[in-house]
Structure to design on (346 residues):
């Protein structure tokens, strides 16, 4: 396999590039597998094999990933950056090239007025940490699947709040030819909008971000987090494998997307093992044996019906990634949005 010698050379270069300390060079922490089923790494539980799946960690993470992105670009190997796999559907054919999983790049540091969080850290871990420290501002994220990197990339929004509302600055890794450098990007409100961030459509890896928090009443923080989690449970977010909302809400339509889909009479409709949730029009679930093609076909059907019967262009929130030759390539919009956790770490 052509990726085997590429990986061997990459590991060797990483170890040689790190200056040895008193105890010798730091070890490279790396889990990797060839032909790894992506169904094991997404909340929808679908997806064929990645040619090469990598999950680096430890203090050599930035060095290794910088070299990976640079050398893969030179060799012509596509790199897909994965976070929690919470907002995407991977093709049944899988993903060609390399999947960089950020799941071992985790950690939280408390700073004056905020938290610095590494991109692979799960949202639940972040909210639990804040609650233990009596820090308020992140309660609305309680129970949200995925990682910080994906939430920043998507500018995740729930309960009338967006990640950009609590975002300070973002640290990214930028590839420049044969090298990669870390940069800090300040938040400018004009760069963010409803479920959009300036990192979408850019070949940059989100390394971490600073989140604004303040001292609060620990009991009140816990109570609000419990309320948000229970609301997600009532809405059926955890009943079956899914990726949450399939389409974005557009208030110009006069109703929520879920309500529009229900008014079209589509709630409960199924194709293969994929089904529009009987309790929510804007959630597609995997009833147990769905393929990625089932999910995509059902989403396409919903979009076509909304266009034909209401004249509405529904915009997808979930991303369809990987090798979709049997149903056609991604649309230009999807090609731009192939995430960074998805290229932003979805």
């Amino acid at each position: 396999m052509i990726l085997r010698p590429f990986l061997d050379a990459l590991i060797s270069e990483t170890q040689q590039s790190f200056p040895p300390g008193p105890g010798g060079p730091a070890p490279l922490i790396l889990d990797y597998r060839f032909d790894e089923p992506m169904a094991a790494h997404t909340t929808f539980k679908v997806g064929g094999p990645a040619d090469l799946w990598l999950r680096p960690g430890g203090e050599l993470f930035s060095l290794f990933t910088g070299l990976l992105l640079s050398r893969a670009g030179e060799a012509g190997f596509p790199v897909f950056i994965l976070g929690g796999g919470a907002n995407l559907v991977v093709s049944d054919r899988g993903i060609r090239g390399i999947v960089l999983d950020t799941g071992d790049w985790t950690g939280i540091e408390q700073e004056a007025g905020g938290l610095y969080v590494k991109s692979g850290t799960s949202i639940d871990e972040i909210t639990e940490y804040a609650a233990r420290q009596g820090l308020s501002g992140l309660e609305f994220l309680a129970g949200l699947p995925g990682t910080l990197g994906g939430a920043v990339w998507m500018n995740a929004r729930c309960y009338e709040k967006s990640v950009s509302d609590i975002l300070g600055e973002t640290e990214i890794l930028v590839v420049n030819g044969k090298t990669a450098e870390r940069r800090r990007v300040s938040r400018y409100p004009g760069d963010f909008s409803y479920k959009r961030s300036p990192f979408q459509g850019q070949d940059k890896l989100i390394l971490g971000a600073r989140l604004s928090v303040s001292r609060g009443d620990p009991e009140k923080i816990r109570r609000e987090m419990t309320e948000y989690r229970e609301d997600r449970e009532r809405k059926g977010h955890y009943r079956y494998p899914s990726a949450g909302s399939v389409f974005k809400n557009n208030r110009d339509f006069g109703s929520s997307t879920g309500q529009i889909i229900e008014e079209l009479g589509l709630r409960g409709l199924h194709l293969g093992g994929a089904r529009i949730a009987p309790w929510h029009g804007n959630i597609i679930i995997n009833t147990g044996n769905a393929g990625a093609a089932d999910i995509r076909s059902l989403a396409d059907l919903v979009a076509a019906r909304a266009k034909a019967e209401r004249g509405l262009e529904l915009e997808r929130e979930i991303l369809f990634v990987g090798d979709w030759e049997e149903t056609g390539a991604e649309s230009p919009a999807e090609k731009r949005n192939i995430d960074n956790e998805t290229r932003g770490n979805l």
Observations:
- Residues 247-315 form a domain with the Uridine Diphospho-n-acetylenolpyruvylglucosamine Reductase; domain 1 fold (CATH 3.90.78.10).
- The chain has three domains: 3-101, 108-218, 247-315.
- Residues 143 and 229 are 5 Å apart (CA to CA).
- Confidence is low (pLDDT under 50) at residues 327-345.
